[in-house]
Specification:
Length: 177
């Protein structure tokens, strides 16, 4: 199966920890994610079909005593997965993330939050399909679902990535290969 790259920003709206989220001292720049902490989201790719379902499950948690956001995700019952750590970088004065995958590539990027929208730009290292950058946008719909869209820089050209609609699903599980 062709591996699908899912940018980290898709996951940056969600999380959980040993202490209840309300009891944690969350870093002020991560407070924007508090309403989504401790939740699991299930997203269906726009191009998914009943014959070939493409589903992403992500779990969001505050980590490192509230200084980071940790996101685990897996695609289609564990065919692919990844882990993201988001932290405030005082030198860059930005939310910075690192994303590591079971496919062996990784990314580093920045996130910007504007109202209910999240924008990310990330550099990709080691992708075998020629993807070197990803830019993504996500937002929360009035019904509580999250829409995520991306573009990939592949062989020097920006191409459409994917579109996914996520809904909260506490029964969904992240399955890492």
């Amino acid at each position: 199966m062709k591996k699908r790259y899912v940018p980290v920003f898709l996951f940056v709206f969600l999380m959980m920890s040993v202490l209840p989220v309300s009891a944690q001292n969350i870093h002020k720049h991560l407070e924007v994610f508090r309403p989504y902490a401790g939740k699991t989201w299930r997203g269906v790719f726009e191009e998914s079909t009943p014959e070939k379902p493409m589903v992403d499950v992500s779990r969001w948690e505050f980590a490192l005593n509230g200084q980071a956001l940790r996101i685990l995700h897996s695609l289609t019952n564990g065919e692919y997965g990844g882990e993201t750590i988001v932290m405030w970088d005082p030198n860059e004065e930005a939310l910075v993330f690192h994303y590591f995958t079971t496919a062996g590539f990784f990314t580093k990027g920045t996130l910007q939050v504007e109202g209910n929208k999240l924008f990310s730009q990330e550099a990709v290292t080691g992708n075998t399909e020629g993807i070197t950058e990803v830019r993504s946008t996500s937002h929360i719909e009035p019904d509580g679902s999250m829409i995520s869209k991306s573009e990939y820089l592949k062989n020097g050209e920006w191409i459409p990535g994917h579109s996914i609609r996520y809904v909260e699903d506490q029964t969904a599980e992240v399955i890492l290969p």
